[in-house]
Write a structure and sequence with these properties.
heterodimer, A: 114 residues, alpha/beta, Transcription Regulator spoIIAA, B: 144 residues, alpha+beta, Heat Shock Protein 90, 3 helices
């Protein structure tokens, strides 16, 4: 069943954290893009993206993440992904993005205190 | 096979059609229908999840990058033996093509990677008036 999409931004630890829930697809990815770009434009080169509550993502969502990663790296930073759902991990794996993004299985291991 | 009553199962030759306006926010309809049909065609939960993702990508492929398009998307699901075939057609697709921008090109590339990893065959055809993408997925243990 489709789960409602939501974004929650908070700042704890060294980096801003953007938590997302529900389905990130062609319809909702623009909201995530806007949030990521705004956070980067505020001078945050490194961001933690919490996908622990995400139930689905498609290629549009991945394109947004890759675009944001490039922006972060241009500024000398990083886009850390936090994910544990095997279905979501599988999408990162089959697209080779596990080798591109730093991926952690908890906020603590991504460098954010829980 | 998922836990469905035998009376609910789709049989060889059964076809299901779905048509909706070619809007990104409605691609979820294709995914929902894919879940229902895959379960009734005997695919297990993991295959069902693969098909749900793949059919969403199929819609994006037909829409040429995922933005809203004029016209309707028509999906046809056909159960044939140990496989399911899904065809997605965007009629009246003049001007369909990848929108400019690195992010969209990257998403298109990733979409094709997802399809090639999750289904046995897929493709896309375009002519003056329409764009059609298709896939075929065998049930586990029946692949080529």
């Amino acid at each position: 069943m489709e789960q409602e999409f939501w974004i929650n931004e908070h700042h704890e630890g060294a980096f801003p954290t953007i938590a997302v829930g529900g389905e990130i697809d062609v319809a909702t990815a623009p909201q995530l893009r806007e949030c990521l770009h705004r956070t980067i434009a505020q001078g945050n080169a490194t961001i933690v993206l919490d996908l622990l509550e995400v139930s689905f993502l498609d290629s549009t969502a991945l394109g947004v993440l890759v675009g944001a990663l490039k922006r972060c790296r241009e500024l000398g930073g990083e886009l850390h992904i936090v994910v544990t759902d095997p279905r979501i991990m599988k999408i990162f794996e089959i697209t080779g993005l596990t080798k591109v993004f730093p991926i952690a299985d908890s906020l603590a291991s991504a460098g954010v205190s829980s | 096979m998922t836990d469905l009553d035998a009376a609910d199962a789709l049989r060889v030759g059964d076809r299901v059609e779905l048509r909706f306006p070619a809007r990104g926010d409605l691609v979820v309809l294709a995914r929902l229908v894919t879940s229902a049909i895959s379960a009734r065609a005997g695919f297990d939960i993991e295959e069902l999840e693969d098909l749900r993702l793949a059919v969403g990508e199929l819609c994006l492929l037909a829409m040429g990058g995922g933005g809203d398009r004029h016209g309707d998307l028509s999906l046809e699901f056909s159960v044939s033996g140990e496989a399911i075939d899904v065809s997605c057609t965007l009629a009246g697709a003049a001007g369909v093509g990848r929108a400019p921008g690195d992010e969209v090109s990257e998403a298109d590339r990733l979409g094709e990677q997802i399809l090639s990893a999750l289904v046995d065959e897929y493709g896309r055809e375009q002519d003056d008036g329409s764009s059609r993408s298709w896939l075929r997925k065998q049930r586990r243990g029946h692949g080529a």
